[in-house]
Amino acid sequence: MTGALWLAWRQQRSMILVCAVLLAACTAWVVHMRSEMMTLIDTYDFVPCKGWNGGCESLGSFMVLDGSTGSIRALGLVGFALPALVGVFWGAPLLGREIENGTDKLALTQGIGARSWFAARFGLAALSAVTVSTVIAALVAWWWAPVSNTLDGLYWHDVAIYNATGPASVACTLLGLTIGTAAGLLVRRVLPAMAVTVAAVGTVAVFTTYFRRSWVEPERRVTPGMVPKTRVGSAWSWEFGYLTPDGREYPISQYCQTSGDPLRQCMAENGFVARYHKVYPSSDFWVFQWIETVLYLGVAAALIALVLFVLRGPAKRRATTAGPAADATAPTAAPRTAGV
User: Fold this and answer.
1) For position 245, what pLDDT does the model report?
2) Residue 164 three-state SS
3) For the chain, how big is the Rg over CA atoms in Å?
4) Which of 161, 137, 130, 122 is nearest to 7 (CA)?
5) Is the sign of the CA dihedral 187, 192, 198, 202 positive or negative?
6) How large is the average pLDDT for residues 92-106?
7) CA 215, 216, 221 angle in degrees (round to 5)?
8) CA–CA separation, 270 and 252 (whole Å)
9) Nearest-angstrom CA–CA distance, 247 and 142
10) Contacts of 16 (CB under 8 A, 6+ apart)
C-alpha cells in the first residue's frame, strides 16, 4: 500500500478500526439475542402466524414477540440512522477537515493529483461504509426472519425493517457518505458541513417515504356488498372504500364509517355495491427496494461527478501558476556581443 491509498489508510484507520470493533460487538450481541429468541420459540412451540389478523395465535406467540420485537426494532433503527451517521461523522470531515485546516495543499504538493487524492480517500471510506451497512442489514434480516410479518410484531414495511434491510439500505448509506463528502468540499468547514449533511439526508428520507407508494400501483381487492373483506395478511394496508356500479371509488374516510345494519343502509343510500381495499403485498418489498436503490445510486453518482468537477479547479490553478514559475527559473541565453 503506497501513495495516496497509504495516506488515506493512515488518516482513516482509527475510524475503520472503531467501526470494526463496534460491528464485532453488535454481531456478538445479535447472535446471543437471537439464540435466546430461538429458545423461546422452542419452549412455547411458536407457530409463525403470518398477518396481523391472526387466526392461529397463541399465548406463546405473543410472549415470543414481546421478548424480541423491541430489540430487533432497536437494531433496525440503528440501520435506519446509519446513512446520516456515516455522512456526518465520516463523509463531512473526509475532505472538509483537510480543506479547513489547509492540509489538503500539503497533500497535493506531493505529486498526488486532486482526483487521485479524492479517489483514494473516498474509495476507502465507501468500501468501509458499504461493508458496515451490509453486515447490519444482514444481521437485522437474520434476526427478524423467524418472527417476520407475525401478529403484532414487525412487518416488512415498518421503518425499522424496510430501511435497515435490503439493497436500498446499503445504497442509502453510500449516498449519505457521498452527501457528507460533497458538503465538506463545498462548505469547506466541518461543523456547517455536518449540519448540511443531516438536513440533506433527512430530506432524502422524507422524499422517499412520501413518494414510495406512488411508484407502484397497489393491489385492489374487491368484495361485493357486505361480504367480509379479504384478510390483510402480511400486506401493507393503504386504503379502504366503496365502489359504485360504474367502478368509481369513495374512500371510507368520507362515507359509511359504520358496520352491520347501519352500514348496509348507508351503502344503499349512496348506491355502493361493493367494498374495495388497496394493499401492497409483501412481494412489493423488492420492487420498492430496487427502485430506491437505483435512485440512491443515481444521486450518489451525480454528487461524485460534482466533486470531481469542483476538484478540477485546484489542478488548473496549479498548472497555471507552474507555467510562469517554470519560465522564470529556466536558463536564459547569453546576450550576443558585437564581433562574436
Assistant:
1) 92
2) coil
3) 29
4) 122
5) negative
6) 78
7) 150
8) 12
9) 43
10) 9, 124, 128
Amino acid in position 244? T
Question: E strand or H helix at 280, and its extent?
Answer: strand 274-280
The pTM for the full model equals: 0.84
Share of the chain above pLDDT 70, in %: 86
Q: Alpha-carbon distance 218 to 181, whole Å?
A: 37
Distance of CA 339 to the CA centre of its chain: 81
Mean pLDDT score, 74-97: 94
State the chain's maximal CA–CA distance in angstroms. 125
Residue 57's identity, in one-letter code, is E
> Given pLDDT bands bounded at 50, 70 and 90, which one contains residue 45?
confident
Kindly state the DSSP code that residue 9 receives in the 8-state scheme: H
- The residue type found at 222 is V
Specify the pLDDT at position 337: 40
End-to-end CA distance of the chain: 58
Q: Residue 95 pLDDT more than 80?
A: yes
The CA angle 241-242-244, to the nearest 5 degrees, is 150
Q: What is the pLDDT of residue 80?
A: 96
d(C-alpha 137, C-alpha 170), whole Å: 8
Q: Compute how many other C-beta atoms are within 10 angstroms of the C-beta atom of residue 311.
A: 20
Instruction: Strand 249-251: give its sheet, edge to edge.
Output: 219-224, 274-280, 236-243, 249-251
Query: How would you classify residue 3: left for phi > 0, otherwise alpha for psi between -120 and 50, otherwise beta?
Result: left
Strand partners, 224: 274
What does DSSP say about strands 236-243 and 219-224: parallel, antiparallel, or unpaired? unpaired
Grid coordinates representing 144 are 427478524
Of 272, 281, 280, 282, give the one whose Cα is nearest residue 241.
272
User: CA 31, CA 21: separation in Å to the nearest integer?
Assistant: 16
CA 292 to chain centre: 9
**Amino acid, res. 310:** V
* Amino acid identity for residue 48 in this structure: P
